[in-house]
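Fold Annotation — chain and its backbone

Fields — amino acid sequence, structure tokens

___
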Amino acid sequence: MPSDPAYGLDPEFPNLPRDVAEAYHNAPPNVVAEVINGVFYAMAKPRPAHQSAGGELYAELSSPFRRGRGGPGGWIILPEPELSLGELPDLAEPDVAGWRRERLPERPTGAAITVVPDWVCEIHSNSTRRHDLTVKMPMYLLHGVEHVWLIEPELRTLQVCRHSPAGWLTVLHAVGDDPVRAPPFDAVELDLAALWRW
């Protein structure tokens, strides 16, 4: 690839095609920019229902699992982190992501985190659902993410997927407002109703 004039011109992403690296660097602030398998994607920023669900989920998990208040602790949980995974790399921004603290013991110094998350959550909207399912889910599987949560605020559903040798295995599908225990955070009940409230 380095001998190809379309590659190797960007010092930060020398393995990406030049036009893809340029598009990523120059993406306008009103979009979520991602590069997966060498392809550039730009999506509209999340709408309020999407943002609210992500914020409530972060709040529900952060206290017991990050701070250890009412739960076991042991996690780093971040809203909308920038990920840079693999050699190409894949540049993604999940809605919420988490790492077991022993796998991310020090705060990264760069903007993007290069350690593969143990858990990610994607909150679907009409504009992101296909991208999440057909582009990001295979990418997360490839990099070895252990669990992925898929949330549909308008349908009030949570789907929990676990990495397996055969692909993603759905281990929980919850609907409505009832509290659930969802891996890998099943040590504490998750108040699903909080995710749908405004």
